[in-house]
Structure of AraC family transcriptional regulator:
Amino acid sequence: MYEWNEMVQMMVDWVEEHLDSKATLQEMSERLGYSPYYCTRQFHLLTGMTLRDYVRLRRITHAALEVRDTELRLLDIAVKYGYSSQEAFTRSFVRAFGMTPASYRESRRPIPMSIRAEVFSPYHYAVKERVFMSELKLQEVEVKIERIPAHQFIGIWDVESDNYGDFWANGHDCDEVSGLLESMSHHTLPGQLGQTAGWFYREGRKGYLYGIPVSADYTGDIPEGMECRLIPESEYLVFYYPPFDYMKDNASVMKAVEDKAWSFDPGELDYVWDEAGEKQDYQRHFPEGYGYAVLRPVKRAE
């Protein structure tokens, strides 16, 4: 069960490793042990797009990041990502993003980048390997203090959702939202991880948010369908678990962190919760690089 979810995820990994090379579908299929036809058929079945289109979109996205973040000549970027000429690269860029590479380098405004496909999740892994949360031994969740300066948050606040799954099921296109925010990653508030989720509170209701923290003086473009709000400086209690194996441990780690975050008494550290007004809770989720954390704003107890 889920053999092909895992296999297609291996195809995604292979594509990501070879975006700037001339590796072929034949080479990939030989590595995986299936025919090129069967690989492309299963890829389309699980991702909703052809393998050719996926490679094209991921290649132009990586090229766009180099246009934005480096001073390389456009011709050199075009050649690196397999385009026959700068003109061919420009045509593909315009078709994907509605502007030329030169215009994007100058404006750096949000564009709909393609995000990496994910079709093999911890759930699939658990079923395949018969690994369940009760079998995993986790270390203690850490609790620490962090001060985050005043900043703006660009994203979507959905009062009808209070968790990650419901948020994306409530009419928000994950690929579109994540792709736009990825194009704004160079604006991320220093010291933060980039795309961030969390919770907010309005008139006694708890909603879910998704977006990117940027500096308090950001004056750039705001993607259509998103808002920009100023978040005051605050201290946060950080409930943190260090880097872990996403496939094996994700569900257990998230449950352990969130259980502690929602049950902890800040009075133990001479704090009280301070989640009123424009302040909001944050999630940081980068399993192999950072780990997982829930951040809740606090203030000193009087």
About this structure: DSSP finds eleven helices and nine strands in the chain. The chain has two domains: 3-107, 135-300. Residues 141 and 166 are 26 Å apart (CA to CA). The domain at 135-300 is CATH 3.20.80.10 (Multidrug-efflux Transporter 1 Regulator Bmrr; Chain A).
